Amino acid sequence: MTETVIVVGAGSAGCVAAARLSEDPERTVILLEAGEDRGHEPELRSLNWLDALGHRDVFYPDLFATKVQGGEARLYQRGRGVGGSASTNAMLALPGLPQDYDGYAERYGLARWSWSEVQPWFAKLKPTLVRSTDEELTPVDRALLDSGTVLGLPDDVDAYTPEDGSARLYRTADRRERRSSLELWLDPARGRGNLVVRPNSQVDRLLLDGARVEGVILADGEEIRGDQVILCAGVFESPCVLMRSGVDRPGLGRGLQDHPAASVYFSMKPEHRAADRAIPCIGSVLRLSSSVGAGDLHLLPLHGELLASTPPSHGLLMAAVMRTRSRGELTLNPEHPLAPPIVDERMLTHPDDRRAMREAIDAVATVLSGDAFSEIVEQTFIDEHGTPVDALRDEEVFDRWLSTYVGDYFHAVGTARMGGADDPDAVTDELGRVHGLEGVSVWDASILPEVPSANTHLPVVMLAERLSAAHRSGSLV
Ligand SMILES: Cc1cc2nc3c(=O)[nH]c(=O)nc-3n(C[C@H](O)[C@H](O)[C@H](O)COP(=O)(O)OP(=O)(O)OC[C@H]3O[C@@H](n4cnc5c(N)ncnc54)[C@H](O)[C@@H]3O)c2cc1C
């Protein structure tokens, strides 16, 4: 054996990294995961995301985030266990827009992460996805697919292209079950003699000899030695492992971005109330542009029995701002450094983000009053008091509502971002190697410098695929 690589965290990125790196029989790969190995339980395989969402044992119970300044800290959903968030997410798969990646090149000097560089990698991932068929659409999906025209946009465009309009979603699934990082990458690799998968192994910090990393130290004190450590512990934990190891780059933990999202609920007319648990509960999206960005808003529908806190037999339209300028940060919990960090998202602090959200909610109201939704919707409401969506026309009501109800879209990135060594806010170089240390890299959502205009699983898989290839060849291809 010539090299031992320790991969920390078995989620979207870690499953890909461990599988790809262990293709070389000369390399030993040890995949360490804090949670259990239960990614094959039926709830996590189900095509209906609500089954996974209801399986609380596979989420971190104690990760909280303050969404907006002055607001309460609320639970942040994050998958825990082999499969990570890739086994608990809603399976929606989008690559993002050319301007997202061209922005990485322009604003952060990351020319090798421009759209022309990443597009071929997204093209290779497309055959692993399925696109919603007519049979898989809920009544709410069908109404949304007919609603682009209400906003002057085309209906039923291809979501994998940058065009605005209503679109059927692609999913990390086949026609029967989830097919994500665990199923497509890690499972086929598990029989290899040079790959060890260790659940219930939370990494505390790096094992260091000066600036040279020699392995990791687990929370129970066990030392595991290796030549390279690749952190894939996710946007909240990879920076914490570095912080607990004494890394103090100014940008570490800063630069956190997510998509702010807020939902308008509605009760359905009786003939549309039954949601079939077997079909995916989200099958479409409507992409549009605000006055501050192109393709920067998503309207996403959901149909079915949602959360315990909301009435059954209803649906919602969620408005999400997909290009954001606001940034938050995370810090270690001073009393319990091994517990989840303190997360302050500071969403909507930038006026453009607030303006984009205003326009997104106006678009929701317009769509809900169009013919397609009037056919199926009985009543709209924006809170537990049954306040109708029209109340949001008032700016004061709108701001109060946002401060209480705006959430994230589970798409956090940016807490250990890529950039040059002379860029004080950069934590890693363009290959994910941590500046100032030798032998440790970050390959997960933490290193994306801005949140792309997409649900983040597929961009993270693209990142891990590309960095795995670079690890083999020595440079980005
Ligand atoms: C509820 C939910 C719904 C989502 N829906 C979608 C969607 O539909 N489409 C989409 O594209 N994206 C979606 N996302 C976002 C997407 O899943 C994430 O962006 C992506 O999975 C992040 O990948 P990652 O590898 O960075 O982290 P993760 O997949 O979160 O993996 C990190 C792993 O590291 C482990 N870990 C953490 N700390 C340690 C430690 N110290 N030692 C060892 N292991 C550790 C964790 O337990 C976890 O398994 C959703 C996310 C959630 C939570």
TrEMBL record:
<protein>
    <submittedName>
        <fullName>GMC family oxidoreductase</fullName>
    </submittedName>
</protein>
<comment type="similarity">
    <text>Belongs to the GMC oxidoreductase family.</text>
</comment>
<dbReference type="GO" id="GO:0050660">
    <property type="term" value="F:flavin adenine dinucleotide binding"/>
</dbReference>
<dbReference type="InterPro" id="IPR007867">
    <property type="entry name" value="GMC_OxRtase_C"/>
</dbReference>
<feature type="binding site">
    <location>
        <position position="409"/>
    </location>
    <ligand>
        <name>substrate</name>
    </ligand>
</feature>
<keyword id="KW-0274">FAD</keyword>
<feature type="domain" description="Glucose-methanol-choline oxidoreductase C-terminal">
    <location>
        <begin position="325"/>
        <end position="464"/>
    </location>
</feature>
<dbReference type="Pfam" id="PF05199">
    <property type="entry name" value="GMC_oxred_C"/>
</dbReference>
<dbReference type="Pfam" id="PF00732">
    <property type="entry name" value="GMC_oxred_N"/>
</dbReference>
<dbReference type="GO" id="GO:0016614">
    <property type="term" value="F:oxidoreductase activity, acting on CH-OH group of donors"/>
</dbReference>
<keyword id="KW-0285">Flavoprotein</keyword>
<feature type="binding site">
    <location>
        <position position="203"/>
    </location>
    <ligand>
        <name>FAD</name>
    </ligand>
</feature>
<dbReference type="InterPro" id="IPR012132">
    <property type="entry name" value="GMC_OxRdtase"/>
</dbReference>
<dbReference type="InterPro" id="IPR036188">
    <property type="entry name" value="FAD/NAD-bd_sf"/>
</dbReference>
<feature type="domain" description="Glucose-methanol-choline oxidoreductase N-terminal">
    <location>
        <begin position="6"/>
        <end position="261"/>
    </location>
</feature>
<dbReference type="InterPro" id="IPR000172">
    <property type="entry name" value="GMC_OxRdtase_N"/>
</dbReference>
